[in-house]
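Hey, quick one: can you model this chain's 3D structure?
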Amino acid sequence: AQKVERSVRKSEAALYLQDRVGQKFDAVVTGRTDSATWVRIFTPPAEGMLVNADTSLDVGQKLRVRLVGTDVERGFIDFEPVH
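Sure thing. Here's the predicted structure for all 83 residues.
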């Protein structure tokens, strides 16, 4: 049940943001692996993957990001860092 609820929340966030592609947001790094970095924006609250990310980013680090795309069906939200 929690997995379905999380999936619905992610799709809702992607739907809400789909018309805001290109906009900039304040974010914080929430997770990192060798292949991906995730960030959370606050207004509206949403989490997504950071594409073209600098590998030196640390969890908890604040940065400015630009929304580059959403996939409502899969609940994906992609951001890129603003330099």
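One thing worth noting: The chain has a mean pLDDT of 90.
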